[in-house]
Each structure stands twice: as C-alpha cells, then as structure tokens.
C-alpha cells in the first residue's frame, strides 16, 4: 500500500492530475480517476468525490492520494464531482483503514463501507421520463391499457420514481410495463443521484428591524391592526416571548414559528404579517441533539479510587496500555471521568467505548452532567442524519469526547489522547458480519498507537488475552478489589434444579429457593433482576408423539417460539411462520414447548407473583430507538419490580434497589461447544451477579443449575479469578488455543452443498503449502450447516503468534482465495475470513 502521507500536490494548472480513490466495493485495490481542471486546486486526501463505477453505478469515493502518474493498463474515467469544501476523512483514518483491511483479511473498500455513516454516501434511485422523440399520436406499437395509463401519468410530470408506479398498477407489475415501454422506445430510465444527509433546519420569525429602530412605529402598527384580532394576537405573543427593546440581539435570533402556533396563533396570520413586512421569516440550522444540563458537582473519588488513579498515571509513564481490573461496583466510571477530564484539559480528544447500546443510554446521563455539550454519543440506534451530525461535530472540533459502541472507532479523530474500553472482555466488541470482522478492543489499541495516545481497558473479569498481556508485562495492571463506599459483595446460593424436580418443588422453571427469595425481595419493596440468555418464549416446539420439531426453510436450525406474536421465528434469517395446530409429520395435536426463553420466564413470573410489575429487556423489546432508555428509566424510577433480560442486563447497570439476581439456567452458558465457554460463563455470571446489592445493602445471587458440583461455580462464588485463569490457561496451552496461538476461521458459502465442500477442500490443500508454523483443522460442516439457503463449511487455522508469520500467512491466504475465485467452478463461492473469531 502506498505511503498515505506522501501526497505531493502538483501545480493547480496541471492538466495531468490523477486521484487514487477508495470505493465501497470488495475489490483489493484503489481506483485511479482523472481530476478535472475545475477542481485541481481544491482536491486532496480525505475529500468525498462522486465517480462512475462500471457502466451504471454512481458511487461515493474517498480520495486516498493525488498524483501525476497515469495508470498503465486503462484510461481513467474523470471524477464527476467534488462533494465537499473540506475533507471528511483524515490521513490517519485512511492509515487505520489500511491496517484493518490487512490485519482482518478484507478489502479496504469494505472497511470504508463500514466506517462512513450511510448519510455520507450517495444513493441512487431509478427515474423515468417520456422519451423526447416519442410520438403519442403515432406510437408505432400497440399499447395496452396499463401502458397508456403509465404514459398519461408520466406526461404530466418531468420525471417519476419507479416506486411511484407501483401505486398506479395492481400487483406491483410496473417493472414489466416499464421494460415493455423501454423496448418500444417510449420512455427513458436513468439513475438520479442524491445526497442522503440533510441538515436539520428550524423555521423562525423576527420583528422587522425598522419597528425597533424608528420610535413610535410599533404603536402605529397596533393602530393599523385594530379589528384584525388574529394578527394582533401573533404580534402580542411575539413581544411577550422576545424583549425586542431591552435585548435587540434576542430579536435578531427570532422565535421558532412553532412556539407561536403552539400558543394558539394562526399560521396564516403569521404568514400575512410576513407578507406585510412586519415579521421576517428565516431558517436556521439546529442540532438534532438536546443540549444537556451540566451539574455543578465535581468528580469525587474515594481513597481507593484515588489510589487507583495515581497508579494509572504512574504506569502510563511507561506503558501505552493498562488493564484496570475493578470488581463490580468498585466505581470505575468515576475514575474514567477524572481521566477524561484531565485529557480534555490538555487539549486532546477522548473515546470511551462501550459494548452495548443499553450501556450507552445509561452512562450518557451520568457523563453528560459532567461534560455537557463537549460530549457526543455515537451508536447504531441513531438515524443516518444524527450519525453524520456527530461525525461532523468531531471533524469541526465541537465534540472532543465521544462515548459509543465499536463503530465509534471510525470517527474522524485527529488528536486522540485517550481511549477507554469499558467491559473490555465483552464478546459484543467483535464484529461478525459483514466485513471487516474486527475486534474493537484490539482495533482501539492500534488506533491509540497511531495517535500516540494511551489505552485503558476496564473490567471486573478480564479477557484471557488481556490478562495474559498484563501478566507478561506487555500491559500495565491496576486492580481494585473493594466496592465503592461501604457496599459489600453479594451472597451466592446454588439452587439444584434436579433435586427440586425430584421433590416436586420446581414450579414453572423456578426452584423453591429462588421463588422464596423473590417473594422476600418484593415484600421489602426492592427490585429483582432475572437473567436468561435466550430470547423468545421457548427454544422450540415439538410433537409429543413422534418428536417432530419445526425447522427453518432456509437454515439448519429449529424455529424459536414467540408466544406474544404467536409465531415461530428463525433468529438467523428472520423467516417467520404461524404456530402449527397439528404435527406436520404425524398429524397429532400434542404440540408442546421445549426449553425456556425470556418471554416464558416473564409469563411464569406473572403467574407466580401476580402483584409484581414485570418488564422484559431483550432484542425483541428494544428494537425501537429509545427502547433501552424507556425500560431502564422505568426500572430506575421504581416502576418495575422484576426485570427479565438477556446478556444486556449483565453489563455496567447500577440500580440502588436491586438486591436479588436470579440466573435461571447457568448450565446453558457453561456447557456450550466452544473453547471459551468456561471463560464466558465466569464473566457473565460474575457480571450479572455484580448488579445485586449496591451502596449499603448486601444483595443475593441465586444460580440455578443441574450440576452444582462444578468447580467453576465455587470459583465464581469465591471470586477466585486467578485459580480459574491458571486452570483454563494450562488446557489452552496444551491444546494450542489463544492466547498461545492466533486463530483464523475461513468459511466457504454456496447454494450447492458439494460446491461449498469442494471449495473448502481445495483451499485447505493450497494453505497446506504455505511455509508457516501452523495447524489446519477441517474442512468440516459448520455447527449450523445452512443459513439463508447457503451451505457452510469451516476451516480452522492455529497460527504462530509471530507478527512476521501472521503478516506473511495472511497475504498468502488472500492470494490463494483470489486464485480459487478465478476458477469458474468457484466463482460464486463466498470465502469469509474471520481473524480472532469469538
């Protein structure tokens, strides 16, 4: 990849200027376009340009380099347009994109596609117009009624969208009619290009300045308005809201038109006063975000927190990355806030990464009280326009502190001083699909290095990779083993599901111990968290007679039963169908649910505790923009007694009244076919347990299990992370698992089973010839062998951790994949490379 910083700008009058453009396509190179004379003195690295790609596509590209070397093999097309007056991406970002594409074995165009908010990309839509040479009187071809209707409608407009014709014609047959009319030369179809982002504007009005400057003119105006009560009411209301004589600058800012209409003023009367020249109407750009109120209270640290902060500052003198291990409830957020404040005062930028949007909404209010409008929030629940506004806020220096999820790494930072990765162990930091399949924690460390910034990794239960690096001196290490204030760690209890079942004490999936503890907690008017890491009502339904289980038509998985929607749903492709009345195999009507999801837990609790107010927090209840916020606000306000949730509720939430946490099925987390299953079980159970008992209350945690004899439960209860870590690491070293090796997973996908399998076998043979220290496993059919009608085969590679070995092998890997894709047998096979799979 060329040196991104070696951008020499030729003279503005040069006629042979070219630009290398990054385009959002999965092709491993930049594309060279010619730069027109009209934009040669404006173009540079990071500018957005509009270019033609192929015969019909119009794409948004980012300029990576400007030079005078013409391409050898093709005649470059011209850049169609320069979209901005300033670069929207900086050189450091392009360097970061290049590293990510190299490390995670994908194309830089795929990284760009993930990095840029949709609102900064051009979109195209098909437009239709009557052909200028078409003769309505003598069309030359017979026309049916639908074609005549479409042409008559089109003749009344300069152009129309293809979608608009669907409303005219029944059964969405417009595409066939358009194709017919195209063949008859009656119409033209073309692509209209438009910008997605549009700034938010506000319509305001103000009193014309002459009525302020000229004495007595306002009084005479009221004389003129006598009898015109509605217009007079508008003027009086405006003068009540704006002190035009005492504060002329307030009049210059005007008043939002909506304020007048909300107070009963007639819109037509306002418009009449504008026409008369009494009021002036104008638009202003406004932010889509509310300006937060800042608290006067500073950041107060306990002695323990203060000592941890001093250790962090001291270790940052020698280490660029520090692991902060603080038990749940130890007050890591206050330490973050003090560090953020210190860095902002030095003039640098800060990024605080969180694994879930749920955490974002909860922490935003706490941190906004400290940092106010200096802080921006960035996550996927925001609209395209809102995300562009945050992007531009960082670009223009409005936001020096960003709190957000993994996509925040791509924002246009130019002077990062600190990156904080909270709950660094979380699997949510891993991007699964589409490419780049990056690990945000690891990418954050690289981004910090590029900015010569510091990285703080915070968690109560470190990932094995981070703890290994801390133990070996690569990272600094600070530990807090006391909760904030006088808070005590919760008491743990193991509830044996099988024993209760034998004694007929198990009711609706709840052991007697958990039911009693819930009732006691409700009696004390305190709150309960119930954790079950499976959404839906039940994992699946089954026929009692023959064992038939409904499966997805497109994937090799059973359909999950959702009671509230009365449907079976695939959680992989979204396929849905109604719940069958009878078995499709034997006709029996003995259809029962198997297993337990959050919906069923919620229903069971409402039957067991009819007086309790119960809410559910999972992917189904938080799809809306403010879904998380609404549920958490209700729970925080005490309007919910029991909150049932998936792993969303395990992370960083802090509620004073929660004194009981129930884990319905700990075995489901522990007994999972993955080498990280034990690590994740320890982390998830410890994290959700940490929600119980804050401030001066000691909480309880009930773990329901069929295997209470498991060693890991004793280690969790004792908080013995080190013993657990040592045992697990001994196994990983023996069987070659991370962090002792680098894992790479390659998936082949194709609609034909045999083609997917053959492609995987050919690829393995090619990889075996690469001279690198490695172990290659497979290919094997994936755990879920078919998703969205595509068959999946996996190859697993255990690779030496040496940086040179990794770089060499990854480049060879991409070359081998390109070699296979050039083979016509495998042209339609998709090869997905996942580095550091989770």
Automatic annotation (TrEMBL):
InterPro entries: DEAD/DEAH_box_helicase_dom, Helicase_ATP-bd, Helicase_C-like, P-loop_NTPase, PriA, PriA_3primeBD, PriA_3primeBD_sf, PriA_C. Residues 578-735 form the Helicase C-terminal domain. It catalyses: Couples ATP hydrolysis with the unwinding of duplex DNA by translocating in the 3'-5' direction; ATP + H2O = ADP + phosphate + H(+). Keywords: ATP-binding, DNA replication, DNA-binding, Helicase, Hydrolase, Isomerase, Metal-binding, Nucleotide-binding, Primosome, Zinc. Gene3D superfamilies: P-loop containing nucleotide triphosphate hydrolases (3.40.50.300), PriA, 3(prime) DNA-binding domain (3.40.1440.60). PROSITE patterns: HELICASE_ATP_BIND_1, HELICASE_CTER. Zn(2+) 2 binds at residues 552, 555, 570, 573. Its cofactor is Zn(2+). Residues 313-480 form the Helicase ATP-binding domain. The keyword Cell wall biogenesis/degradation does not apply. Its EC number is 5.6.2.4. It holds the Pfam family PriA_C. Belongs to the helicase family. PriA subfamily. Initiates the restart of stalled replication forks, which reloads the replicative helicase on sites other than the origin of replication. Recognizes and binds to abandoned replication forks and remodels them to uncover a helicase loading site. Promotes assembly of the primosome at these replication forks. Component of the replication restart primosome. This is Replication restart protein PriA. It comes from Cyclobacterium plantarum. The lineage of its organism: Bacteria, Pseudomonadati, Bacteroidota, Cytophagia, Cytophagales.
């Amino acid at each position: 990849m060329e040196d991104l910083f070696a951008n020499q700008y030729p003279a503005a009058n040069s006629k042979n200027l070219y630009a290398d453009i990054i385009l959002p396509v999965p092709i491993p190179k930049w594309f060279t376009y010619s730069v027109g004379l009209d934009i040669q003195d404006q173009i540079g690295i990071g500018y957005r340009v509009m270019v033609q790609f192929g015969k019909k596509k119009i794409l948004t590209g980012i300029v990576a380099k400007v030079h005078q070397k013409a391409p050898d093999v093709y005649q470059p097309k011209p850049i169609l347009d320069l979209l901005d007056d300033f670069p929207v991406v900086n050189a450091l970002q392009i360097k970061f994109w290049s590293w990510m594409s190299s490390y995670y074995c994908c194309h830089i165009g795929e990284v760009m596609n993930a990095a840029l908010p949709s609102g900064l990309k051009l979109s195209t839509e098909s437009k239709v117009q009557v052909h200028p040479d078409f003769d309505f009187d003598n069309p030359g071809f017979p026309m049916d009624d639908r074609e005549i209707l479409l042409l008559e409608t089109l003749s009344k407009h300069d152009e129309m969208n293809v979608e608009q014709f669907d409303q005219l014609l029944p059964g969405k047959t417009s595409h066939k009619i358009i194709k017919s009319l195209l063949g008859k030369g009656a119409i033209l179809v073309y692509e209209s290009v438009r910008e997605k982002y549009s700034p938010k504007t506000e319509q305001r009005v103000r009193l014309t300045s002459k009525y302020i400057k000229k004495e007595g003119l306002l009084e005479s105006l009221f004389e003129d308005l006598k009898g015109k009560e509605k217009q007079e009411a508008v003027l009086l209301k405006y003068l009540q809201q704006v002190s035009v004589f005492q504060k002329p600058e307030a009049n210059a800012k005007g008043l939002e038109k909506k304020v007048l209409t909300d107070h009963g003023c007639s819109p037509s009367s306002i418009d009449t006063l504008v026409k008369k020249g009494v009021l002036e109407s104008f638009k202003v750009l406004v932010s889509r975000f509310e300006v937060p109120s800042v608290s006067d209270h500073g950041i107060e640290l306990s002695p323990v927190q203060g000592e941890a902060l001093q250790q962090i500052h001291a270790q940052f003198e020698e280490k660029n990355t520090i692991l902060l291990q603080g038990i749940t409830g130890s007050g890591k957020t206050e330490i973050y806030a003090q560090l953020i404040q210190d860095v902002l005062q030095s003039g640098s930028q800060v990024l605080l990464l969180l694994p879930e949007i749920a955490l974002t909404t909860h922490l935003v209010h706490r941190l906004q009280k400290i940092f106010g409008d200096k802080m921006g929030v960035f996550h996927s629940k925001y609209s395209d326009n809102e995300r562009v506004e945050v992007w531009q806020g960082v670009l223009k220096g409005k936001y020096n502190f960003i709190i957000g999820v993994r996509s925040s790494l791509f924002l246009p930072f130019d002077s990062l001083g600190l990156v904080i990765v909270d709950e660094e162990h979380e699997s949510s930091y891993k991007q699964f699909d589409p490419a780049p399949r990056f690990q945000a924690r690891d990418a954050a460390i690289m981004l910090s290095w590029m900015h010569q910034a510091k990285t703080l990794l915070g968690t109560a239960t470190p990932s094995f990779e981070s703890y290994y690096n801390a133990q070996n001196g690569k990272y600094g290490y600070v530990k807090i083993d006391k909760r904030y204030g006088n808070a005590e760690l919760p008491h743990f209890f193991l509830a044996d599901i099988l024993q209760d079942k034998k004694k007929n004490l198990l009711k609706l999936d709840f052991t007697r111990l958990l039911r009693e503890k819930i009732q006691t907690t409700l009696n004390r008017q305190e709150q309960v968290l119930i954790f079950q890491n499976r959404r839906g009502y039940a994992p699946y339904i089954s026929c009692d007679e023959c064992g038939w289980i409904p499966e997805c038509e497109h994937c090799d998985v059973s359909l999950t039963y959702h009671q509230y929607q009365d449907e079976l749903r695939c959680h992989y492709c979204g396929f849905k169908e109604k719940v069958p009345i009878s078995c499709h195999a034997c006709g029996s009507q003995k259809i029962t649910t198997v297993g337990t999801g959050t919906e069923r837990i919620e229903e069971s609790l409402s039957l067991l505790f009819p007086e309790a107010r119960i809410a559910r927090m999972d992917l189904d209840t938080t799809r809306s923009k403010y879904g998380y916020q609404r549920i958490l606000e209700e729970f925080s306000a005490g309007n919910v007694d029991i909150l049932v949730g998936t792993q969303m509720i395990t992370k960083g939430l802090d509620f004073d009244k929660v004194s009981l946490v129930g884990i319905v099925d700990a075995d489901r987390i522990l007994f999972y076919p993955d080498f990280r299953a034990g690590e994740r079980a320890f982390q998830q159970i410890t994290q959700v347990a940490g929600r119980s008992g804050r401030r001066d209350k000691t909480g309880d945690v009930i773990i329901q299990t069929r295997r209470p004899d498991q060693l890991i439960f004793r280690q969790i209860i004792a908080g013995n992370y080190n013993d657990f870590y040592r045992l697990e690491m001994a196994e990983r070293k023996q069987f070659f698992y991370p962090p002792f090796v680098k894992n790479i997973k390659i998936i082949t996908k194709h609609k034909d089973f045999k083609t997917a399998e053959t492609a995987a076998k050919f690829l393995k043979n090619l990889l075996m010839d690469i001279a690198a220290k490695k172990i290659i496993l497979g290919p094997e059919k994936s755990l879920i062998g078919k998703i969205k009608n595509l068959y999946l085969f996996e190859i697993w590679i255990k690779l030496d951790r040496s940086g040179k070995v990794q770089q060499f092998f990854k480049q060879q890997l991409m070359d081998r994949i390109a070699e296979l894709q050039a083979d016509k047998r495998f042209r339609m096979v998709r090869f997905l490379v996942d580095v550091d799979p989770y």
